[in-house]
């Protein structure tokens, strides 16, 4: 359930949609369509079946319900993906249950019995709708926030790029949130990154797959505070246009989706970070340095682009890394 | 040190700012001996280029003496060398630089993200030319930090005076590239809108590249006279003559073989109504640039001809005559000059006496008078065409 993956033409795995909840939501859309049409066309029979054929008010309520069902059908069937439309059915169910409860109060005998059946049926449908709505609307934003990717073309061979990246101790030179990476074994390394409020966080990682000149994948091991994994592929570009470097990183923020939102408020946007890091990687491997200006003395970073200092020399003494 | 700073639209001041320092291994610090105000600085002055900040040091045409070098500078530069600095900042290593397209260097704009939101992709960083193009301090100052100094400078080894070498930094290569983009063939007639420094050098370069006739279009008689006297160009004053009629007349109805727009985003039009239309669009932000010259260049060009756009544009234009452009098989070429690839061959031409770029200089004054210089340059007072400042 949830994430499935597909492999694109470049051999890169990408998360794809899970089709199950979508199918259910769409089925419920067709049910709404059928119910709406039936209610409007055969109002008499429907009102008798549900035990409310004795009041003109109830029949008017039924007509409105029929129209509403058509609305649910539209919300579930017209968009390419059923999303929040599934919740309109849940809202409709709540209204129906309330109406059935109201109708039950003034009735007895056969009508009351039929109304009881109707109410039980409504409760069952509500449960299915609730399940469907939760499934189609859950995970989407959360999953995107937990998986980021980026790519850049560099004027170097795949072998050069692989070699530079494979020495993990090079990573802090272009990944601005990393403080250090130490190689601790053949496939193992120890990573230290900056964390909010001037703190730092350390974890161990291991190389999972390593194909020289092509691909490196890694993942954190044992109790990392932010469990993460990543892959980088080096794909020769067409017609001698250098090498396409494609990175994909997955991670789990403490606090899930909420944690990711909070981190974003503090300027931690992993998607942006990956694209900034790739630009710095390109600068480092092509020119040997990180491009700095007076407005952006620390080089490319989205925060700095938004909070530029004036383009005049720095007052304090500093030296290039 | 003292530096010319942008304070607010239409306000510059010479201020005391910190001295520049080496930030990267391939940096150099240059003590500036001559620096000029460019027509494109007027776009910054008047606030037409986005992302300027109070205190930004202006200037991208400068030369001087190397006083400090980072440990990674190759190419045999040393302290004490006299150099001219190219206005686009370029690494020399990326695919664009290696194809000779230095003004679209892929690495030199640390604010590439801002540029991408406006332009789709980012061009190179430029000295003193807004935070969109890097946020680099410029060279209308006593000292400047020059990144990738081994790519962005040319050494002047003989006693060629500053006024002959300085314009290798921008306007001479820029005018030359405008003419080169016309792909001039024997017998060609080239029309040039704008008789500022770039238009003057485009006219001179078109001649060097073999154009039979060069026609320069402007509204200031003194600028037209300078073009006529120094480049042998024919002239049209668009406030007195209808440009399309005149060009048709002068070319036997064909129109010029290629047209150079050396005006850019702050164009004027003889018709008050047309000028007011674009002024109003600009004021209401429904276009950023006034493309009067570009429209005329397209409409007047010979069928199958080339439009060479060298005047600076920043964003969006309105009423572009696309039908004329498409149906008549025109070609458009454009770009900020790839200065680094022209500096050496043009220095050779200067040494051989094929061109003396100093003819455009009308004023020389100390750096402290930069605000006054901006004033007379902007208002075309005192027959001002080019101001050179000496720090």
From TrEMBL, chain A:
Residues 154-278 form the Coenzyme Q-binding protein COQ10 START domain. It holds the Pfam family Polyketide_cyc. Residues 289-321 are annotated as: Disordered. InterPro entries: COQ10_START, ORF3, START-like_dom_sf. Gene3D superfamilies: 3.30.530.20. SUPFAM superfamilies: Bet v1-like (SSF55961). Coiled coil: none annotated. It comes from the Bacteria. PANTHER family: POLYKETIDE CYCLASE/DEHYDRASE AND LIPID TRANSPORT SUPERFAMILY PROTEIN, POLYKETIDE CYCLASE_DEHYDRASE AND LIPID TRANSPORT SUPERFAMILY PROTEIN. This is Cyclase. It comes from Micromonospora acroterricola.
TrEMBL record, chain B:
It comes from the Bacteria. SUPFAM superfamilies: GroES-like, NAD(P)-binding Rossmann-fold domains. Coiled coil: none annotated. Transmembrane segments: none annotated. One of its GO terms (molecular function) is oxidoreductase activity. Residues 7-389 form the Enoyl reductase (ER) domain. Its cofactor is Zn(2+). Keywords: Metal-binding, Oxidoreductase, Zinc. It holds the Pfam family ADH_N. PANTHER family: DEHYDROGENASE, ZINC-CONTAINING, PUTATIVE (AFU_ORTHOLOGUE AFUA_2G02810)-RELATED, ZINC-TYPE ALCOHOL DEHYDROGENASE-LIKE. Belongs to the zinc-containing alcohol dehydrogenase family. This is Glutathione-dependent formaldehyde dehydrogenase. It comes from Micromonospora acroterricola.
